[in-house]
């Protein structure tokens, strides 16, 4: 019996030592943090410059004929298409909202029109041919919503409000009695604008801007009185612009903060 108990004690001791000698595996280390891009503040000042091709749509024109109680519409009134140069300064408020103030110069657009009436010398009905031209300065305050970012492309929508200083050249009126010149007028007009387009990143600070702008310019003085004719007024005009330009932002560029993986020492196996 004593021999049996001694053998059992030895067997239990060897089993305990075998379990204690099992390999101890340390818990896996947590993964190193992944580098995340740190974007510099989106706000900042920018300068812009634009050129455009402008489709001019005159709403019409009218004038007083003979007396101030006899207002007549032009039989035809049309403006030729022209071009525009603009500069501006703006501020990027956040990732989606920016505002700017722009100053534009509208190159001379030729006016062609006609009127009908009675010629003074003959007393007969006659038609006149009328030619002039207008040029304009536009001062606008604008706001834009950058809709989102798809790679290097950022589409946007915008609106603006301001004024346009319209300068008409003298109007030359030619009929059977000869050619008569009416002195051109100039005036400030209320103007509003709607915009849509997209900017394309060239560098982190420089963006190309391509878009469309619609401007409505209110009506105003056109030409003065001369020989029982005038003064005249235009009824305002719409401008449809295809625009291209550049914007330079003085704010910081987007930077990525690189976090190197933590040095995790390799832990040896521990035996117990």
From TrEMBL:
InterPro entries: Beta-barrel_OMP (IPR027385), OMP/PagP_B-barrel (IPR011250)
Domain Outer membrane protein beta-barrel: start-end pairs: 20-250
Gene3D superfamilies, A to Z: 2.40.160.20
Matches recorded under SUPFAM superfamilies: OMPA-like
UniProt keyword terms in alphabetical order: Signal
Leader sequence residues: 1-20
Transit peptide among keywords: no
Protein name (database record): Porin family protein
Organism: Rhizobium alvei
Classification lineage: Bacteria, Pseudomonadati, Pseudomonadota, Alphaproteobacteria, Hyphomicrobiales
